Amino acid sequence: MARKQLTTTSRDNPGVKAWFGQGTPWVWLSGGAVSISMVMVVGLILLIAVRGLAHFWPAAVVEFDYVARPGDEPVRIIGEVNRSETMTAASMREAGFVVPEEQTLVTRHLIKQGNRDVTGRDFIWYLEDGMSEWRYPADVVQIERLQWGDFFGFVRSYLVDGIAVAQGPQARAMFEEKLRETGALVKQVGRIERFDIGNVNFRMERLRLRQRGLELTVDLDPSTRAQIEAELEAEQTLLEDEYEVLEAQRQALRDEVGRFAITVETMEGRMVTIGLADIVHAWWPNDMSVPAKMGHYVGEFWKFVSGFPREANTEGGILPAIFGTVLMVLIMSVIVTPFGVLAAIYLREYAKQGPLVRTIRISVNNLAGVPSIVFGVFGLGFFVYFVGGTIDQTFYAEALPSPTFGSPAIIWASLTLALLTLPVVIVSTEEGLARIPSAIREGSLALGATKAETLWRTVVPLAAPGMMTGLILAVARAAGEVAPLMLVGVVKLAPNLPVDGNFPYLHLDRAFMHLGFHIFDVGFQSPNVEAGRPLVYATALILVLIIIVLNLTAITIRNHLREKYKSESD
Q1: Could you tell me the CATH number of the domain that includes residue 110?
Q2: 73 is in which domain, residue-wise?
Q3: Most CB atoms within 10 A, among 32, 83, 180, 561?
Q4: pLDDT digits (tens, 9 = 90+) for 188-203
Q5: Cis amide bond preceding 504, omega within 30
């Protein structure tokens, strides 16, 4: 009886009814959901940051003796501890490891021992039970190479023209000093190859197309044709001479760098000769102070964001992917904003409201729910094959059958994403126009302004924050899309950036690299998954940061416009 009376009293309590009637529980529920979402987002970003940025810190190199089976001779292992985990003994026996029958749990360590060209693999699991005590030799060197990944060993001699001129600690000192000089020479060789020779090759290709166009032109008189052919041949001779000079400079630098090398002892006791021309960077992680490690960390991170990829994208930097992502988003924004804004203005301000307009709005809303890969297929068929093929046949016939615009390119990727994000811009702009009070329109018309003047000088500026909201949502979605880009422009490795010093400077017909596809490629298509794992996290962090910067820029512009027109209306 007491329980029934208590239930009735709580049900009839006016305070509880008022509490629910005011919506306070739903406010708290919404606040809690937002808080949980924020914690999850921040936690995810922190996880990506920790796992990605930790890759650039110079980890200690361990040395231990390993016995795989009882009675075997111990083998010296040198490498970097990548990660450790505890497994069941049964699973380890199935994997081929020898584990005592009475043991139930086994701890194993993944060691990055490098030297892939010597041992065939650079990541190997070792059981803790077979390891001796870990040692940290101060003279072990870690070498980042242009090919074959990292190398771990001990510098034994320094060679000049194949002759050892220093041994032991003296070899290390001479190697460190000379590596800085050869590094500058290697960078100079890279600049000659990428920019100078690349510029000559670009002009040679343009010259070839001009010669091909002359062959296709049939309405020239013989004297004019002969004059043009002579001019083209003279230009070709000049380009060939310029190429030979650059090639001679490159070869001279290569020969100079190729004179120097080091002999390194591996963990098996083998002596391996490594040319300084093949070395990107070398450091002694067990013999570095904290300031030296911090300097190394900053340098490695800068090389990551400013360098070009190599070794199937598992080494080097991601500058082309960063550049391609930002440029594609900017081009997409320039395309989608005017079309989306004009479409929304027409639907809201000029179109007669009726079944046709309602059908268009329903179609726009449905378009926002179409899978992105469908847009990619449409972009491939319409933009690449139809529009691009037509442009090639009309303006670039001399280049056929090699396509110019009839192949995946950054312009087609930008147009495809513009279509993908167009519904977002239209809906946001329409909502912004709908929030403008009718009194403002009527007041402007009453003062003698025309409908066009009222729209463009009063209504559109006040609706600008809504337009910027649509652009923010479009940028956020476009920057992270990958599926349609694989069909209309993105590639695993782009030989040239879409922007360079050759006219017309912005080459919209080129394929490009994208951070989202780079993450997919390194994470799921890489031949060396373990080497690419930390780069996946680091690249994802860079992509998130770029999206945040782009969104914050748009939000800042939106808030500025909102405050500007708010103060003017006051």
Answers
A1: 2.30.30
A2: 61-136
A3: 561
A4: 998 998 889 999 999 9
A5: yes
